[in-house]
Amino acid sequence: MLVQKEGRSIPLVQLLRLIGAGVVAGVLVAFIALPGIGSAGLTARDAANDFQNMDDDLNTSPPPEKTVVYDAQGDQIALFFDKYRESVPLAKVTPIMQKAVIGIEDSRFYEHGALDLKGTLRALASNAQSDGGRQGGSTLTQQYVKNLLVENAKTDEEYDEVTAPTIGRKIRELRYALRLEETMSKNQILEGYLNIAYFGGGAYGVQAAAKRWFSRPAAKLSLPQAALLAGITQNPTAYDPVLHPKAARQRRDVVLYRMAELGTITKAQADAAAAQPIELNEDKPIGGCETSKAPFFCEYVRYEMYQVLSNGKYWSLSKERQEEIANRLKRGGYVIRTTLSMKAQNALDKALRSYVSPLSNRVAAEAMVEPGTGHIRAMGSSKRFGVGKGRINLNLAANAQHGGGVGVSAGSTFKTFTLAAALEEGIPIRTSIHSPSRTIVSPFTDCKGATYTGWNVGNADPAENGPYNLKNGTWLSVNTFYAYLQQRVGLCDSVKMAEKFGMRRGDGKPLQQVPSQVLGANEIDMVSLAAAYAGFGARGRYCDPVAVTEVVAPDGKKLKLPKKACKQVLDQNIADQVNEILKGVLTRGTAKNIGGIGRPSAGKTGTCENFSCAVFAGHTPNLASAVAYWDFRGPTRYPVYGVYGATIPAPIWANSMRNALLGEPAPSFTAPVGDFGDFSTVPDVRGRPVPQAMAALRRAGLTAELAPRPVPSDQARGMVAGTSPGPGSEVDPGSKVIVYVSRGKGRDPGGEEPPGDGWDWPFD
Questions:
Q1: Distance, CA of 101 to chain centre
Q2: Could you tell me the CA-to-CA distances from 107 to 193, 318, 545 in Å, in that order?
Q3: What is the pLDDT of residues 535-566, one digit of tens each?
Q4: Comparison of pLDDT for 47 and 377, the residue scoring more
Q5: Nearest one of 61, 308, 60 to 177, comparing CA atoms
Q6: pTM for the whole thing?
Q7: Who's near 257: CB < 8 A, 6+ residues apart?
């Protein structure tokens, strides 16, 4: 194109080089906007002035990246992303990929500035003479600008504005491009473009694209692979190698022969690469917790991160601000390191689903916590995570602030805190309390001075009627014994002990200070319960539950995490006494049916009021776990009749703990120091004649008393049917043992039928 200057014709390109960049741009603006320079009173100089006065401040911060979550061993367990992207420095992009993109998109990239005069004018001239087809004159810098503007759009309106096919948009892009060329090097611009461009298949940036299509990093792309990716960017949908393989191959070959034309590769290299079929090795980007190997743990981490990114204020923010925090997690490119043990997680998942089908209306949830650190090693549910049959998107093992519900009743697992409070206050282990099968206990006073009277409490087993102490009262989980023990300790002190071990309700509110709290009236979550029992496993050192150990931002800086404390909340020797007593629950108490886990362990069963749920919490010195079982449709409306803490939760606990700790050290609990109680053991006299049985009990230092009425049992008529307390129970010397005589099988029409042989059944 020629322009008349002082009576002679010169190329327009030469003329434009004689004036400043802003004027050059202004002239081109006039060409783009109007049929001819000067039309409608607009001159090139006017356009240049307007152009130079435009705002050129463009956000060039790194584009959004995926957030990666790792387990304690450093293996990836989850991805969060809005757009699947992984930015890399230019040095980690193979040179052939760089050359392929430059060759097909902007071959004169290193020779021109913000705009390629030759390319632009050629496109203008061609477009002016064209009846429909148009040529593009955009440089890589301009394309980079366009991608940045799209990425920075926050609303639909902003997106429409930066993608609208208008002259104003092109002018604005050109102004930004000019600024970038002044402030960034060519390599920085190329790096930015390669990290922000869309390469189809949900992959943004060359590194993500290389992994998405070929399962390899951008540093190891071959020539045909690089050419394919470089060609996709022009139209990611039309050149999708899966949806349109023929078009994608044709486009790849265009790139190859353009590279040969430019001398980047030889014709022979282009021919050899073009002869190869497209060979993909796809790795589709899938994010979110639903696809994680540990989805419920992932959910816990997600909510922990919301707190991290909001400086602990997430739950007090508006919904709009909460949404912004959620987007930051998906777009922030964080590296999150966690406490998860996949060995423990796999053991937990297998145990839960071995006992409870994901398709059942009933559900089991479990969490595992490491004593001494509070590190959450695993958590999960018998149902699978997600939406659909047999799935759930509530994190049932966690509290409401971590994606869970309000929790479930703790059952008799809460008796452990009253036991610890009693021992701390110096109540002797051998303390004997007469505990009838049903009684009314009062008064109780809470921490605010409120008084409760007339608490009517009964035992699960009517045969539990007699003297009990801190050992056998715990082993057999005698409700009336613990009602009286809590009265001696004080309701306030019992609750405070639970709070020392981190206990709060699942909805985040403080524990209800009511007499029935000792029997688990408060609804709690399994993470908190496991952490509490981990505190006993650590000899009274309680640690807040921890899931996230480190968060690193894309710039390499570590984010400040919420403070998680460990504190000695109970004297070590008292904790040792608690552990020694809880060991008996698994060897001679309500959970003796599970047969232990092959290493020193302790725990407590729990059956919720009216069979609304069942719970078990237990620990070794190096791992603690809590399991709950209930009907998901509503525990009050749909009770789990016949299920106790020992019948489903305890076997799940034993199975998961056994496999989680397989091959790990098996340390013993520290033996308590001092007097731990002098007890007599109730001998097994079932099936013996009454005189022999009474003599055996007296020889054991016990006081034998015959029950007033015979009872039906499998023992022969006239023989001993059973005793209360049952065989193997440890009682104070001289304690009374009631002897029941059998009248054989059958029911007494005029009497009540006691529970049969099972005076030592695992009821609690």
A1: 40
A2: 15, 50, 57
A3: 999 999 999 999 999 999 988 899 999 889 99
A4: 377
A5: 60
A6: 0.74
A7: 270, 274
DSSP state of 119: H
Among the listed residues 623, 577, 590, 585, the one whose alpha carbon sits nearest the alpha carbon of residue 602: 585
Q: Is the pLDDT of residue 763 over 60?
A: no
Whether 497 contacts 473, CB under 8 Å = no
Instruction: Quickly tell me which residue has 């029941």 as its tokens.
Output: 740
- Please compute the mean of the pLDDT values over residues 593-617 and round it to a whole number: 93
The whole-number average pLDDT for the span 52-80 is 79
Q: Could you give the CA distance from residue 556 to residue 424 in angstroms, rounded to a whole number?
A: 48
Return the ∠ at Cα 143 (arms to 138 and 145), rounded to 5°. Answer: 120
Distance spanning both ends of the chain, measured CA to CA: 97
H or E element, residue 530:
helix 526-537
Identify whether the C-beta of residue 604 lies closer than 8 Å to the C-beta of residue 592: no
Average pLDDT over residues 233-254: 94
Q: Give the Cα separation of 704 and 723 in Å (integer).
A: 9
Report the candidate in 579, 573, 610, 613 with the shortest Cα–Cα distance to residue 474: 579
Distance from C-alpha of 404 to C-alpha of 503, rounded to nearest angstrom: 16
> 392: number of CA atoms within 13 Å, CB side?
22
Angle at 285 between CA 191 and CA 87, to 5 degrees: 15
User: Running DSSP on this structure, what letter comes out for residue 669?
Assistant: P
- Give the DSSP H or E segment for 328: helix 319-331
